[in-house]
Structure formats: structure tokens, C-alpha cells
Amino acid sequence: MSFLIIMALMLGVMYVLMIRPQRHRQAQQQSMIDSAGVGDDVLTTGGIYGTITQVEGDDVVVELAPELTVHMTRRGIAAVLPPDEEDADDDVEEDEDDEDVESALEPSTANGDESAVTDGEEAVRTAVADAPAEEDRR
């Protein structure tokens, strides 16, 4: 009799720890896909990003590139992507930081020669690069 009680408790613990959270995640995923509408950015199950342009019941039309659309079912949507909400101030700060990094990475060629770039090292050439192109060998 105690064996049955232990088995029932183990099944109860498995339900609470494994099955119930998985069902909750599936329900969230399904509600996210069902709520997808025109203008939402989506990721397909094939790994392709696009924007929903039409909704026709269970079918959707996804624009992958300008003038390139794909008709698919809602089951083909893996995720609905959140809209990009970037502030204009953040973009300006990032651009200034990028310019500083790029200028620091650029080699100094103020005098017009490449000696500053190579630091006195000679270029390595291979025999393949020096040899003339051979005809097709069939």
C-alpha cells in the first residue's frame, strides 16, 4: 500500500514540476501566434524573418523582402518579434562611439605609403599567385 502512495506522490510531483509548466509555455506560444496581426514582425519555423501583410483566417501572407511574399499557415510562425523601440538619442550616442572606434582602428597612412600599415614586414606571395593562369585541364 505504501508503494502506491509513493508512486502517486511521485506522479504528482512530476505533474507540478514538468507537465504543468510545459503546458503553460505551449499556451503562451499559441496565444502569441494567434494574436499576430498585420504589421507584426515574425520569425518562421524555417528561420526566416518577415512582416505579416495579410491575415486570411488560419493563413497569413508574410513579406520577406520588398515585393517578395510567402503564403503560410500560422503554425509556420515560430515567434512574433517585439517592435523596435529605440530612442533617437541612443542612436546619436552610438554613432559617435562607432566613429571613435573606427578612427582608432584605422591605420595611419598620412604620408601616403604603406610602411605604417605593414611595420616593415614584407608581403608574402605564393607560387600560385605568381604563376600565370593555366588552361582548363579536361
> At the third CATH level, what is the topology name of the largest domain?
SH3 type barrels
**Span of the ends, CA to CA:** 82 Å
CATH architecture of the largest domain: Roll
Shape: flat
- Beta strand count: 5
Helix/sheet category: alpha+beta
Q: What does the radius of gyration come to?
A: 29 Å
Tally of structural domains: 3
Give the topology string: H per helix, E per strand.
HEEEEEHHH
Model regions low in confidence, pLDDT < 50 over at least 5 residues: none
Features:
single chain, alpha+beta, SH3 type barrels, five-stranded antiparallel β-sheet, 138 residues
Describe the structure.
The chain is an alpha+beta fold. It is built from four helices and five strands. A hairpin with a 2-residue loop joins strand 2 (49-56) and strand 3 (59-65). The protein starts with a helix and ends in an 8-residue tail after the last helix. The protein folds into three domains: 1-35; 36-83, SH3 type barrels (Roll); 88-121, no CATH class. Strands 4-3-2-1-5 form a five-stranded antiparallel sheet.
Write the layout of secondary structure elements.
Layout: H1 2-34, E1 41-44, E2 49-56, E3 59-65, E4 68-73, E5 77-80, H2 88-105, H3 115-118, H4 127-130
Provide a short characterization of the protein structure.
The protein has 138 residues and is of the alpha+beta class. It is built from four helices and five strands; from the N terminus they run H-E-E-E-E-E-H-H-H.
